[in-house]
Design brief:
Order of helices and strands of chain A: HHHHHHHH
Number of strands of chain A: 0
Helix content of chain B: 55-70%
Bound molecules: fe (ii) ion
Number of strands of chain B: 0
CATH class of chain A: Mainly Alpha
Radius of gyration of chain B: 15 Å
Shape of chain B: elongated
CATH topology of chain A: Ferritin
Largest sheet of chain B: none
CATH superfamily of chain A: Ferritin, core subunit, four-helix bundle
Structural class of chain A: mainly alpha
Oligomer: heterodimer
Number of helices of chain B: 2
Radius of gyration of chain A: 19 Å
């Protein structure tokens, strides 16, 4: 089970609200490669993993993704706090605002609500870990794109932290895949998972 | 060390009971923070929980990532996960 810790993993202190930045960054809350999808992907894939060490990696990365979800929510709420309507009406945030005001709702930057179609749970250690490696790279690219579009250092610092974590998660999932393949028969050249056919 | 013997199961059950009561008290205190009775009850169970956690971790390994008591082995991932049967 989980318990909540009343702190962020990394500080978020944004002084200037910015509607345009919020309309972009929301994708890392509820977009296709966002933190909600990431946490649900890993925490659900855990159950069918054949190796306790891999379950550990998925549990700890999945739990960290929940902390990242909270960081992105904190960024969004600080970016939209006390925004005057004049700054909303001509910004791309207006479309989000009409449905959600300044609430934190998991959707993509294009306004598509979060969907579990973004994640895969194949129940196969090789297939699922390969999905996770790709997912971490896609999340890293999204953070790169956010950094290309946002100048304010108050916003960039936590975004840079989140981007770095995707790199670390990618490394740990590479370790998990290596663990899985090392425990397979060395003749299993194509790294299929034969556990169902034994 | 890590197998769930009879003793281990009853220790886990006691921990689950104490923590469930603490959860209920937390929800109640969130809504009624002025309740002195609930706060007293919370504190008495908090002491019980602390002792149970220490005993459980010494016998069965870590309950959280901060609970790896051993300085010579990493038991957090290698001990059984809760859905294993
Ligand atoms: Fe990640």
């Amino acid at each position: 089970m989980w318990i909540y810790e009343k702190k962020l993993q990394f500080p978020v202190k944004i002084k200037n609200p910015d509607a345009r930045a919020a309309s972009i960054i929301v994708s890392q809350l509820g977009g296709p490669d966002g933190e909600l999808a990431a946490s649900m992907r890993y925490l659900n894939q855990r159950f069918s993993m054949p190796d306790r060490k891999i379950v550990g990696i998925l549990t700890d990365v999945g739990t960290e993704e929940l902390a990242h979800l909270e960081m992105v929510g904190s960024i969004l709420t600080q970016l939209t706090k006390n925004l005057p309507v004049s700054e909303i009406e001509n910004s791309p945030f207006a479309q989000y605002f009409v449905d959600h005001t300044a609430g934190v709702y998991p959707a993509s930057a294009a306004g598509v609500p979060a969907d579990m179609k973004y994640i895969g749970v194949k129940g196969d250690v090789i297939a699922d870990l390969n999905e996770d490696l790709a997912a971490e790279q896609k999340a890293r690219v999204t953070y790169d794109n956010i950094l290309r579009l946002v100048d304010d250092p108050d916003i960039r610092e936590p975004i840079k932290f989140l981007r770095e974590r995707e790199l670390v998660h990618y490394q740990r999932f590479s370790d998990a895949l290596r663990l899985a393949q090392d425990s397979m028969n060395s003749k299993n050249f194509y790294a299929t998972n034969p556990s169902f056919d034994k | 060390m890590m197998n769930m013997n009879c003793n281990g199961n009853s220790l886990l059950k006691r921990l689950q009971e104490v923590e469930f009561a603490l959860y209920e008290l937390t929800l109640y205190l969130d809504a009624y923070p002025e309740s002195k009775d609930a706060l007293m009850h919370y504190h008495s169970l908090l002491d019980a929980r602390r002792a149970l956690v220490a005993e459980y971790q010494a016998k069965h390994g870590p309950l959280t990532m901060y609970g790896n008591e051993s300085t010579t082995s990493w038991d957090w991932a290698s001990t059984p996960w809760p859905w294993e049967n």
